[in-house]
Amino acid sequence: MIVPSNPESVFTYGAPALKFGSGASAEIGFDLGQYGVRRVLVLTDAGVAATGAPARIAEQIAGFGMHAEVYDGVHVEPTDESLLAAIGHARASGPWDAFVAVGGGSSIDTAKAVNLLSTNPGELMDYINAPIGAGRAPSHPLKPLVAVPTTTGTGSESTTICVLDVLGLKVKTGISHARLRPVLAVVDPDLTMTQPPEVTAAAGMDILCHALESYTARPYTSYERRRPEERVPYCGSNPVADMWSEQAIRLLAGSFRTAVRRGDDAEARGAMALAATFAGLGFGNAGVHIPQPTPIRSRGG
Amino acid sequence: MIVPSNPESVFTYGAPALKFGSGASAEIGFDLGQYGVRRVLVLTDAGVAATGAPARIAEQIAGFGMHAEVYDGVHVEPTDESLLAAIGHARASGPWDAFVAVGGGSSIDTAKAVNLLSTNPGELMDYINAPIGAGRAPSHPLKPLVAVPTTTGTGSESTTICVLDVLGLKVKTGISHARLRPVLAVVDPDLTMTQPPEVTAAAGMDILCHALESYTARPYTSYERRRPEERVPYCGSNPVADMWSEQAIRLLAGSFRTAVRRGDDAEARGAMALAATFAGLGFGNAGVHIPQPTPIRSRGG
């Protein structure tokens, strides 16, 4: 274990506002109205679009006097090419005052990139983490992004990260900045009921990995003290992130098997949706890591 | 117990971003720089001003090229008169781009009212909760408010509420709106070390009451379903608020007596500061209540 000479004494915590529960996604028009927006782009993938949820949400937004359009070209596991297509669409059809992402992590991450590149100058590679990209920070504020997860796993609604594959380099990387975080997460378990068992299982393992990796991440106190400009959203495990991770694991333990076996069990779906949200709030601040295959290892050591 | 005919299924959760730990208050200049502000008003009371902390924070902000002034006229337990004086000062010396409250709940609550009334038209009584005031909602966005608690109790850094005494009516009431919530809570246990034992004890009981009242508040599901425009920041006990409350009580159990007896115990002061923050994050969403003197009572019943 590395012992810092001047240990970090400060941790940070950020989160979107949360609206959780059955029916929460039927109130997005009202919520967007609070931000004083006029033109709203709803981003989703073709599979989620086929469930009808994104169109319902767009209609509901329009009912509050706003203009809302659906873009269903999100690529599952976004690539630089799919993000460029979405950004190109948003730039050509904009300006947009707000974005709503309906779907799994792919839709939410795509919306983060679209929000960034339609409010800030430059191109995608300018903002991708170094050394793949230039790791540039946004110079202008972003527009409000509302994230509506339809899988119980991603946690992207809570994080500052957009993950993508850069096809030409055969590498998976990301864009990370505090301004990418959605302003509001609308978690409606009703939207997750149609996940097939395999998706429920895979997404549930995602929750478990998020919570465990966040809980066992190096503690923030194990780093050298950072200057304020060196702070990053993923600051290491800390008392706040630990609490979310513990509770996510507890919820999983009580609901994961039921949600896979009986997809229509509303209570299990609700607990899984809450577990995914909690794990996102934890790892969105502590960070995740590649667990080492060391058989016996003290926590955070 | 009242059983709703159409029970609420949605709860909401909001919180400021958090920067926690020894030395956190020495980074406020950098943090304010992220909001692109130029003129910053630091609000405090005379007692806290005498510790030198507000002046140090203002100097540190000025070191980042911003103009910062200290207003130390906050009244401990704010009144309509003391708020009007602070609002008058801010309006006359403004416009201000951001506010920093350094102190207990009185300073933070005063800053909320000053922020509201220097960004929105009308007078104090227009915004005070009905039926005492007109219960008007702000029509314009507020400026960023950074809350820096120096007592371990208030929780005001996390809430949407400003509490005040209306002297002419001999009544304690408040102003509550989601926009009053600070954007950033900077919780630096170093600033809490000078609390005398009586203050540590009284403020610690405040934590306990916040956590217990929030934990035993009527659950959100015990209310009739609200329309989105009827939702209030205090939505009843819920899984998120419960988690904060439980953890606040656990932290208190391990640190309260030590913090009162040995005010220089940094670990106990840190745990109390965290407990106060957690309790604020809980009751700032669930709400508080007047516990009923019923000896045996099932939870939330």
UniProtKB/TrEMBL annotation, chains A, B:
Statement: the UniProt record of this protein carries the keyword Oxidoreductase: yes
Domain Alcohol dehydrogenase iron-type/glycerol dehydrogenase GldA: 18-189
Signal peptide: none
Enzyme Commission number: 1.1.99.24
Catalytic activity: 4-hydroxybutanoate + 2-oxoglutarate = (R)-2-hydroxyglutarate + succinate semialdehyde; (S)-3-hydroxybutanoate + 2-oxoglutarate = (R)-2-hydroxyglutarate + acetoacetate
One Pfam match: ADH_Fe_C
UniProt-recorded name of the protein: hydroxyacid-oxoacid transhydrogenase
Family: Belongs to the iron-containing alcohol dehydrogenase family. Hydroxyacid-oxoacid transhydrogenase subfamily.
PANTHER family: ALCOHOL DEHYDROGENASE, HYDROXYACID-OXOACID TRANSHYDROGENASE, MITOCHONDRIAL
Occurrences of domain Fe-containing alcohol dehydrogenase-like C-terminal (ranges): 236-289
Keyword ATP-binding: no
InterPro entries hit by this protein: ADH_Fe/GldA, ADH_Fe_C, Alcohol_dehydrogenase_Fe, HOT
Lineage: superkingdom: Bacteria
Organismal lineage: Bacteria, Bacillati, Actinomycetota, Actinomycetes, Streptosporangiales
Keywords: Oxidoreductase, Transit peptide
